[in-house]
């Protein structure tokens, strides 16, 4: 299976893709929109996308892309995010003047960076891409914040491991496939839905109350503005399910109150692992 990811080989998305589909071929993409385009154009069989981080929150662009494309979520996994300060061989931590990484990774390492004021933080498009850049440029005064796998993949050294502010740092990833190629998992216990309601008092409460009346347990709710319709919103919910009948009841409950309802996928809920890898 070929899986599209946003980012370079060695990124956390790469690691998550291989965790969900061991032995998969990875197709790196620069932008999230390119990931979904690769899936739609059949350049990839699936896509692995981060949807939520336990510290930084949701990846909002990916909710929009899930709604815009004819795809379904078929699996999820939780990846322990462990950030490392990485440099080319022979560099010491005292020599580092610039640190490159994705803005979210930099934000998750604020205490380490504050303790090293000599290091200037510079945002980059990808964690693994920042390692690739410093190796390509052979820059002895630069470092990157990325995974252990990225250091191994590009042949760099870890100057200091585990520099994130909070050890309870997990990212939830979805495995996404084209809608027509999805087989329902008989052991699925989670459901993701997108829906929109009319812009009038009580409409959202009515929709959520209808779900609650069915005994549906919501585990997440997120709102996103509807493009081209100011002050109108789409809502995304995750809920627990016991079987196909629960899915049908939840969808029917929403249809009674919503102008749009889309099932984004049903899948098995992931559990936290020990996260010993980078």
What is shown here, in short?
The chain has three domains: 1-80 and 170-181, Periplasmic binding protein-like II (D-Maltodextrin-Binding Protein, domain 2, 3-Layer(aba) Sandwich); 84-161, Periplasmic binding protein-like II (D-Maltodextrin-Binding Protein, domain 2, 3-Layer(aba) Sandwich); 184-272, ACT domain (Alpha-Beta Plaits), CATH 3.30.70.260. It is built from nine helices and 15 strands. The chain has helices at 12-20, 32-40, 60-68, 103-107, 110-114, 127-137, 148-154, 203-213, 244-255, and strands at residues 2-6, 25-29, 46-53, 57-58, 71-80, 84-87, 98-101, 120-123, 142-146, 157-161, 170-178, 190-196, 217-225, 233-240, 260-267.
Could you please describe the fold and organization of this structure?
With 278 residues, the protein is of the alpha/beta class. The protein has 3 domains: 1-80 and 170-181, D-Maltodextrin-Binding Protein, domain 2 (3-Layer(aba) Sandwich), CATH 3.40.190.10; 84-161, Periplasmic binding protein-like II (D-Maltodextrin-Binding Protein, domain 2, 3-Layer(aba) Sandwich), CATH 3.40.190; 184-272, Alpha-Beta Plaits (2-Layer Sandwich). It is 28% helix and 33% strand. It contains 9 helices and 15 strands. It has helices at residues 12-20, 32-40, 60-68, 103-107, 110-114, 127-137, 148-154, 203-213, 244-255; strands at 2-6, 25-29, 46-53, 57-58, 71-80, 84-87, 98-101, 120-123, 142-146, 157-161, 170-178, 190-196, 217-225, 233-240, 260-267. Strands 1, 2, 3, 4, 5 and 11 form a 6-stranded mixed β-sheet that branches. The chain has a 5-stranded mixed β-sheet with strand order 8-7-9-6-10. It has a 4-stranded antiparallel β-sheet with strand order 13-14-12-15, sandwiched between helices. The longest helix has 12 residues, at 244-255. The protein starts with a strand and ends in an 11-residue tail after the last strand. The relative contact order is 0.18. The model is unreliable at 274-278 (pLDDT under 50).
